[in-house]
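Q: What does the assembled structure look like for these inputs?
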Amino acid sequence: MQTVHVHTTSHDYPIHIGAGILCDFSLFAPYIGKKIAIVTNETVAPLYLNQLTDLFKKNNIQYFTIILPDGEQYKNHDSLNQIYDALLTHHADRKTTLIALGGGVIGDMVGFAAATYQRGVPFIQIPTTLLSQVDSSVGGKTAINHPLGKNMIGAFYQPKLVMTDLNTLQTLPEKEFSAGMAEVIKYGLLGDLDFFVWIEQNIHEIMHQQPEKLTKIIAHCCQMKANIVAQDETEQGIRAHLNLGHTFGHAIETEMGYGNWLHGEAVAAGTVLACALSEQLGCLKNGDTARVAALFRAANLPDKPPKFPFNQWIAHMRHDKKVENGIMRFITLQKLGCAQISEISDMKLLDFLRNHNFSRF
Amino acid sequence: MQTVHVHTTSHDYPIHIGAGILCDFSLFAPYIGKKIAIVTNETVAPLYLNQLTDLFKKNNIQYFTIILPDGEQYKNHDSLNQIYDALLTHHADRKTTLIALGGGVIGDMVGFAAATYQRGVPFIQIPTTLLSQVDSSVGGKTAINHPLGKNMIGAFYQPKLVMTDLNTLQTLPEKEFSAGMAEVIKYGLLGDLDFFVWIEQNIHEIMHQQPEKLTKIIAHCCQMKANIVAQDETEQGIRAHLNLGHTFGHAIETEMGYGNWLHGEAVAAGTVLACALSEQLGCLKNGDTARVAALFRAANLPDKPPKFPFNQWIAHMRHDKKVENGIMRFITLQKLGCAQISEISDMKLLDFLRNHNFSRF
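A:
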């Protein structure tokens, strides 16, 4: 087991990473009170809920469970209210601990419920997807969707503990494991060339879920994100680098309809576009983009975007939250392993998208 | 004009207190961006909204308004969602400033909307009732009600600025002014005997809204609350003293049906009960309770609770959030001007309520 310690302005918390750690009550013990609410979804419940409830039963911890439907389309006020209702019905008080057992959707929603129930209760995350293990464990971003926008309602709220059990990845669909790898590769690109090279060299073992390799990539990404977030907890500056590939990625997700391309797949294609844009800006060397695209392919990820009209690209990207005062800002690469913010005019972007015909990569 | 500076863990902010300050754009200027959303209710809008929008128009500040129905029964998710919808429809971004123009209900709801819209946007309070001026301006408590409990969904979130214009009190119903005075008197009792004595000596001028006296009481209460909250921002310890009279008060409100007794009226009667309990504990001197009751009467407030059965008292107080692990905790007085936490058994409480027959005061 490896542990990453995350420092935040409100408190510090550990991320424990290892195979089978969900059975180790001593890791939970310092962070739970007398009563626990476990929130999970219909997909994860049959796989891991019993394991957890058995653990609490054996240790005489009072608990109750809340099982929500699975999917991004349920990351809304109705599901949030199901959590509130259950908490109130079970007389949960300010010391009741909420546990989020599931992927990013469960983590985001339960985190927001914990942030807002009685103005804040303790919260433990058990992320069960690679994406949530590397991305949602650090940063304190919680949210639900609103009919008029994704993640529009939320709060910055930190967990007391994150338990990342590698065994939960064994039941994760391969497509989703790959989607998580898009974010892992992104971390190398935006801030650590050595890590990027290490992923290139070990991609085969990683894709076969070799436990030591998995522990290393998850711990490394969490540590990198923790360092970035520590400098910028409420996302005013450098934290924007984490959005590498996400502006193009969001446009792809919007155009294709959410759920048709996984977030990680869109981020992979979006990151290749961001690399190509960086090459055009004269930052990346010729061939760097092709090298990045090759690694995404090795992780069974798309290395180019679907084709759709220029004006759709512009329209979708304009809706991105990062647009401020009409200026379009992109995260690009100064060189492999080093991100920057670039301001790009509509005309330049149009040229870029046209020149590449979406098919160069 | 007087200014109280409030220090919080996230940032510091000023509370400006004075007559007519709502017309002074220079006080707003440092705290607003290019776009403002003003949220108010149907009662306050016809009185003060134009004054504010004229000010912003004259200074070329882009704004839009959201007018909600008036009343505690609208402090719910539907109203909150009206705010979210308007913000999204008007493309409010993370730099849009929310202004709460109204009493405690508007302040609590708009504060919660600001805490959660895009994970937090800037927020200015313009409290228009005495209660919200002395009580909601400090502490960062925001919330909405849930069908299963009052203030169950909320967050701790601080404003950037509080503008307390005494002129807004001129349109406040007398009954509500008195209700605000219950909290003012409470501050003297729980932490400052000199202030309590000063209120006794000046109660006539205060009730006639003499501006200098009003400025003093509002500034003094805000400063006292700021000192208490600074020691205990998330309500783990000493901040509980602010709940003097509130456990009995909540029981009265619940029994009578919310809205039949104003919160401040219930707190006045509840505070007299807390004093009598303190006398029985041997803390207050004989006659202290009568002295407190006399001041509440001078402020046109009830000095005794309505009569209702013992078991109802117990049942209502058990539902109070301050009950932890079945122990009933009350804020009592060590002496006038000094609060403490007392743990009281059900039997002792029953004796107390029976002995006083609710009519001794």
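The longest strand of chain A covers residues 149-156.
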